[in-house]
Amino acid sequence: MAKYYLHGTLFPHEEDATHEFKGHRKICQEEIADMNEKTRKSVSRNICGFLNTGKGGTVYCGVDDTGIIMGIKLTQYQRDHVVGSLHDLMSRYTPPVPRDRYSIRFVPVLDSNIPLERREDLCMYDPKKHVDGQSRKALHLFRSQRRCWCDEDAKKMAFECGVIICDYIIEVIVHPWNADQCQGGIGDLLNVHPIYADEAGKFYFRRLASLRKYSLYEVTLWAELEASRRSQELIESLKNQIKELELSKDSSRQTSDSDNNDGEYY
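The chain above was modelled as a monomer; its predicted structure follows.
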């Protein structure tokens, strides 16, 4: 079944350690106007926080602070803009974030009065079929408060051409760190998840439903404690493996002695 959300309904999760709501699609700090800086924060801060916990998380753009699903109107060109802006942002982190650490998904938002049998068809709508492939190659304006050409195009489509633009929830997904599969962590043996500074050189960590900004000293201290904790876990794991090997050897010896005794008996 295709995934979708319904306008005006309550989001199925509350904001917590791995879920964050945003009522806008401002990806980086440069897109936030100075006058709104205290009340509106970029998505980047939350991405940084999810990366630095190592547990991952998802930012839902188009959900207000109370958890009500609003959606954001997006043309295909604007969707391309959001994807490009995210890739541009991740390339500016220190260290740069590889693309396998994050993904983005556009989930349709439908009116609740639409019959169930029609919702599946609406979710299957592909906006790529109705845009010019050559225009999709045009450069977008990132890192700016000014409107991009794709925003002007969307305005023209809606007001001059009468085109109905679909609503979406933008899900920006940060994948959990897997020391066995991911590369580039701290320490060749431990492979602790990296600590990232955002595009402004700031360190954020997710704490329940909030963010905390760390100083460089705090980050260094955290890395030392985390390395110590992971080292202890590795030592305990190796000890358990050694015990299992010893038990296996003892069991093999007992079986061998039993076989020898049986042979002597006969």
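The longest strand covers residues 102-110.
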